[in-house]
Amino acid sequence: MARSLPSHPIGVFDSGVGGLTVVRALMDRLPFEDIVYFGDTARVPYGVKSVATIQHFTQQIADFLLQQDVKLLIIACNTMAAVAADVVRAKSPVPVLDVIEAGAKNAVARTRSGGIGVIGTPTTINSNAYARAIHQLNPDNRVYSQACPLFVPLVEEGWLDHAVTRLTAQEYLKPVFVEQIDTLVLGCTHYPLIKPLLLELTGERMQLVDSALSIADQTAELLHAQGLANTSRDMPDYRYVVTDVPVKFQTVGERFLGRSLNHIERVEL
Questions:
Q1: Other Cβ atoms closer than 10 A to 19
Q2: Element (H, E) at 139
Q3: Each residue's pLDDT tens digit, 180-225
Q4: CA dihedral over 189, 194, 199, 201, signed as positive or negative
């Protein structure tokens, strides 16, 4: 593979549509970078699959994006990052960033009391990946994790400020509120869409760490440090590659992206 150039795109991938919150954060933070987004919409959800299967699918997608001459890979899916980030890093000729590492770094930097809460899907929470990442950075931090399985379907339904979502969030956060924590990591790419609701419920009690914003900052730092930031000031090129185009992909995708979703390509891996 040829050497990475500043003009090459950033490759972002996810098991489905959730990683578009990461793309949105990247668009805002790095408005001149070209981006190729890959969503494995035919095989979503990943959370119910075995570790070996997730690793296999993740590597397939990474290989596809590397063929598109990306200068950087971003694993935007917490499930993939939890079980397959090391596999991708071991084989990748370009830098690999992932949402778990980015969220953990941000949480450790921001906590004052050393108490950090993590909310995520059952797979992400069961993997304990956030706790490991946080303790590698600071063994003294205390981590409290809470699985929130109903948040993803509620967000995809568009019930972002709905009474049902509010009640669900209150139930999930009850055990978190009991602990002495001052920082809460949103450990799923769907959760930024309910951030206003979560902020309302947590109030002054804790600050929220959004992994999408964390990884956009980390990407900017890495591109600058390695001399890979795009120097062109032309309109960026955004490509969206999926393995299936489900009926609701466009509407749900635009909600996540916060803008219109054009140029959707379908590929078979």
A1: 27
A2: none
A3: 899 999 999 999 999 999 999 998 889 999 999 999 999 999 999 9
A4: negative
What residues form DSSP beta bridges with 72? Answer: 10
Would you tell me how many other CB atoms lie within 10 Å of the CB of residue 10? 25
Q: How far is CA 108 from CA 115, 125, 137, 159, in A?
A: 9, 18, 7, 31
The predicted pLDDT at position 2 comes to: 60
Nearest-angstrom CA–CA distance, 151 and 154: 5
In DSSP terms, which residues pair with 146 in a beta bridge? Answer: 119
Q: Are 216 and 25 in contact (CB under 8 A)?
A: yes
- Known catalytic residues are 77, 188
d(CA 14, CA 37): 8
On whether the CB atoms of residues 190 and 120 are closer than 8 A, the answer is no
Cα separation, 123 vs 264, in Å, equals 28
- Phi and psi, residue 35, nearest 5°: -135, 135
CA dist., res. 73 & res. 218, Å (int)? 12
What's the CA gap between 23 and 253, in Å, rounded?
11
Give, as one character, the DSSP assignment of residue 22: H
Helix (H, G, I), strand (E, B) or coil at 42: coil
Given a contact cutoff of 8 angstroms between Cβ atoms, the answer to whether 100 and 131 are in contact is: no
Mean pLDDT taken over the chain: 94
* Nearest in space to 101 (alpha carbons), one of 185, 19, 40, 21: 185
pLDDT of residue 208: 96
